[in-house]
Amino acid sequence: MSGSFTDDDGKLILCVAENGHTFEFNCNDTTSVESVMRFVESVSGIIFSDQLLLSLDMKLEPQKLLSSFGLPASDREVFVFNKAMLQSNSHPPSPEDLDLQEVDDALPPAPVHEHHPLDDALDPALKALPLYERQFRYHFHKGRNVYNCTVVKLENCERLTREQKVQQRAVEVATRNLEQYYRVIYQNFLEFMKRYKHQHRLHSDLLMNFGRDVEKLRSVKIHPCLQTDSRKCLLDFVKEDNLKKAVENCASSHKQFENKIAQFQQMFVEVKRKVEELFACRDSLTMKNLEVTVKDHERYIDEQKSIMQSLSKDVNTVKKLVDDCMSSQSSSSLRPHDAVSALGPMYEVHDKNHLPKMQACYNSISELLDFCKSKKNEMNNFVHSYMQKITYVTYIIKDSKLQFPVFREAMVRQDDLFADLKLVRGVGPAYRACLAEVVRRKSSMKLYMGMAGQLAEKLAMKRETEVRRREEFLKTHGPFLPRDVLSSMGLYDTPTQCDVNVSPYDTSLINIEMADVDRYAPEYLVGLHSKVASSRSSLGMSSDSSLSAEAIEISLDTLDKDSFEDILEASELVEIAGTSKMEVENAKLKADLASAISRICSLGPQVEYEVLDGSEVENLLKNAAEKTEEALHAKDEYEKHLLSMLKEKQRHCDSYEKRIRELEQRLNDEYLQGKRYANSTDVSGLNLMNEKVSEYNKADVEGNKAHVSGSEPMDEVSCVSNLSSKQPGKAREGMDENMVDSSQVLGHPLDSSMLESQQNNEKGGKGNVVGEMGVFLSDSSTAESPTKSLGNNVVTGIGLDTKHSDDIILELKNELMEKSNKLTEIESKLNRAMEEVTSLSRELEMNQKILEESQMNCAHLENCLHEAREEAQTHLCAADRRASEYSALRASAVKLRGLFERFRSSVCAGGGVAGFADSLRTLAQALDNSINDNEDDGNVEFRKCIRVLADKVSFLSQNREELFEKCRTLEATSEQTIKDLKEKKELVKTLYTKHQLGKQANKEKISFGRLEVHEIAAFVLNQAGHYEAINRNCPNYYLSSESEALFTDHLPNRPTYIVGQIVHIERQAVKQTPTLSASASPEAGKRDYLGSGQGSRNLAASSMSTSSSGATTTNPYGLSSGCEYFIVTIAMLPDTAIHQQAS
C-alpha cells in the first residue's frame, strides 16, 4: 500500500505497500497515470500489469491524467499494491536484510610503537608521554567509530519505523475501501430483503387464503343491472378451472424460492462474519509503542556526543603537553612528572568509563535495531496476509453482488406467477371501488350542477347591478348632451345575458346509493381482515375524507380564481338553487365517503403487508384512544362552558325583567297622580284618548301576533332603533347601572338585514311612530298596565280642562316614547344575546357531530376489543387444550416416578453385585406381571429397558469372578516384570557410566607437547613447592598462584598433581636490573600474551591493561638470568574423571 504526499505541486511521493519504501516522482496535473506506473515499475520492480493504485476511495486508471483524481495534492494519498502478492498462492515476503558494519570491524588498529623524539629521553616520565599520546588518539578513533556505527543503526531504526507507519496507513486505506464497498452491498441486501419480505408476506397470504377468497367471490352476487347468463356472481369474472393448477405451481415455486433466499441470507451472514473478523484483526496493529521507544533511544546518541567531546579535549591536552615538553626540553621549568601523574587518571577514566559507556550505548541501539527489524518483518507478514484476506473477502462480496440481479429477476417471475392469485384477490376491491365511484360521481354531479346554477345567479346579480349603474349615469349626464352623441359613444349598450349551460353527462351510471354499495359489495371484499388493516382504516378515516375534499378543491382550482372567488368561498355551506343546506351537505358527505371507500379499495391488500410491527400498531391504537378521550373531554368542557354562559344570560334577563317591572310601577303611579286632573278634561280629549287606547290595543294585538309568528320582527326593531337614534340623550337617561353593564356584555353589532331595515324606516319618516310604540307595548307585559291606567284616567277626567288635558297627554306621550326607546334598546340587546345563543347552539351541534364521530371511533375500538376478546378466547381454548395435555403428561410422569423409585430401591439394595443382579431380575419380573393395556409407550419402553438391564447385569455378574482371577494373575506377572526391569535398568546405567568415562578419557586427553590455550595440562608438585607442567619439549611452565589457590583452598593438603584446562599463558623473563621503575612507565612491565583464539591483536590490545607491578627482579623459581618462563592459568574440568591425590 502506498501513501502519497506532495512537497509541492510538482512532486509526488509514492510508497509501496508490501515493504513501505518511498520514491519521489516529479510530475504535474497533466501527467498520465501510466507514466507514474512506469516509474513505479522501474524503481520498485513491480510489473506494470500487477500494479494497483488507489487514492482515497478511487482507483487510478492508467489511461487518465492525475488531474482527474485531484493529484498532485498535499492532502491526498496514493497507494501502490502488488496484485501478484495479493494472490493466495503468492510467496511470503522475504525478511529484512540490513548490511551494516559492526564496531569490531570498524575499530582502528592498535597503536604502533613508532619512534618519537621523546623515546630517547633519559627521564622515564618524558619517555611515557608519547605512549599516552598514542593511546589517547587510539581511544578517540575507537570512540568515533563506535559513534558512527551507532548513528547508522539509529537511522535504520527510524527508517524501519517510517516504513511501518506507511504500511499501517496502507492497511487503513485498504480497510476503508473494503468497508465502503461492503456497506453499499449490505445496504442493497437490506433493501432487497425488505422487498422480498413484503412480497413473501403477500404471496403467503394469497396461498393461505385462496380458498376463502374464492368463497367470498362466489358468495357475492353482482348488481341485477350487470347480471348476464354467464355472470351471476363475482367468481364468474375469473376462470375457475385454471386456478387450482395455478395455486399448486405457485405453492411449489414459493417454497423453492424461500429456500433459495434462506441460502442467500446464510451466505450474507458468512460474509458479515468474515468482514467483522477481518476488521477485528486490524485492531492488533499499533505503532505507538515503537515510536516512543525509538524516540527514547535518541538519548544514547546525545550521551555519545558528550563522551566524544571529552575524548577530543583529552587528545588536545596530551598533544599540547608533548609539544610543550619538546619545545622546552632543555628548560627546567616544566616538570614532566607532574604531567604524567595528571594523565594517569585521565587514562583510567577513558579505559573504565568513557569507552564502556559508548559500547553500552552501541549495544542498546543494536538491540533496538534487532527489535525494529523483527517488528518490520512482522509488519510485512501482516500486510501480506491481511491484503490476501481483503482480496478473498472482496471476491466473496462480488460473488454475492452478482446474485442480486438473479434474485430480482426471480422476484419478478414470482410476481408474474402469482398474477392469477392477485387477480382473484383484486376482483372484490375493484368491484366495490367501482360501485363507490358511481355513488361519488352522482354526488359530484349534483354539486357540480348546483355550483353552475349558483354561478349563473351570481353573474345575473352582477349584470343587474351594472345595468342600474349605467341607467343612473345616463339620467345624471344624459340631459346635457345630444342623444346621438351618446349613442355614437356607445353609452346606450347594455350587458348581455350570461347563460351557464352544463351538458348532461354520466347519464349511463347505474342507479345505486351508498347503502347499495355495502349491499352488493360488502366491506370484507376489500381483504383488509387483519388487525393492522382495521386499525389503518379507522385511523385513516379523517385523512381519507380530507383527501377527497382536496380532490374536489383541486378540480375547482381549474376555474378562474379572480372571477369565481366568492362562489368558491360559499360553495360548501350556502344553499344551492333548488336544494337545501342539508341536501348539499349530504351530497358532499356522500362524495367524501365514496372517495374514501374507493381509495381504500385502490390501496388493496398491499397496505396490509407493509412493514408494521406490533409495537407500531399498539402505538397507533393508543394514540387513537388518547385523541378520542381528549375529544370527549373537550366536548364535556365545552358543554359546561355553554351551560355557564346560558346561566349568565338568564341572570341578565332576570335583571331586565325586574327593571321593567319597576318602570311599569312608576308609570302606574304617574297615571294615578293624574286623576285629580280628570274633571278638567273635555270630551274632545276623551275621544282622543279613546282613539289612542284603541290604537294601543290594536297595536298590542298586532305586536302579539308579530311576537308569536316571528316573521317580521326585524323591520319593527329597526324602526324603533331609528327613534332611539334621534333621541340619544333621552334613551340613555332611562338606563340604570345594571342595564348599562348588560349592554356592554351583550353589545353585538346588528346584522345586515337589521341595518337595511333601519335605512328603509328612516326614509319612511315619522308616520310609523305610533305603530312602533304599539308593537313594543304589546311585546312586553308593560303594555297592559299603562293601557288600563290610561282608560281610567280618561273616564275620570271628563270634567278637566281640554287644554290642560292635551298637555298632560303630550307629556305622557313623550314619556311613553322615551320608555319605549329604552325598551327597544333592551330588546335589541336581547336579540343580540339570542343570536349569540344561536351561534353557540350551532357550535354545540358541531361539537355534537364531533362527539358522534368520537363515538364512532369508540365503537370501532370496541370492535377491535371484541376481536381481541375473540382472539383471547382462542388462546384460552388453546391453553385449556395444553392444560389437558399437561395433565396427561403429569400422570405419565407420576407413573414413571414410581417406576424410578422402584428401580432406585433395587439399585440401592444391599447384597453386593449378586444381590444387585437378583433385585433387578425381580423388578423386571414384577414389571412384566403388571402389564396393563392402557399404558403409554413410555412405560413400555421403561419396562423393556429394565429387562435388558437385568439380563446384562446378570451376564456381567457371571463374568465378574473370572475377571477377578485373571486380574490376580496379571498382577503377579506385572510384579515379576517390574523386578526384571529394575535389574536391567541398573545394568544399563552401569554400562552407560562406563561408556561416558570412556568418552571422557578419549575427549579430554592431557597435552604433553607444546601447551596451547583450551588444552588440558597436568602440573606436578616439584621439590621447590611449585607446580610445574609435565611437558616434553618446553620446560619452565608453572602454575599461577590464582589457579593453585583455586584447586587447593578447599583441600586439607596440597595434591601431588593438578589437572585443568588452560585459559591463559603469560611469558616472562628473568632480568638482572630494571631500566625504569614500575611506577614511571607503562612499558616497564610489558607482557606478551599467547593464545590460539584471538592472535596478536588481543595480546597487543591487552598489553597496556596489565599492572605495572607484574615485572620483578626477583627469581621465584630459581632460574638463571635471561631465562624465559611461563605462568599458566587453568580452570577446573567439568565432570572430570581425573582426581587429585593428596601428598
From TrEMBL:
Skewed-composition ranges (Low complexity): 1100-1113
Pfam families: ATG11 (PF10377), ATG17_like (PF04108)
Statement: the UniProt record of this protein carries the keyword Transport: yes
Protein name: Autophagy-related protein 11
Keyword line: Autophagy, Coiled coil, Protein transport, Transport
GO BP annotation list: autophagy; protein transport
Segments for region (Disordered): 705-736, 1073-1113
Ranges where the Autophagy-related protein 11 C-terminal domain occurs: 964-1131
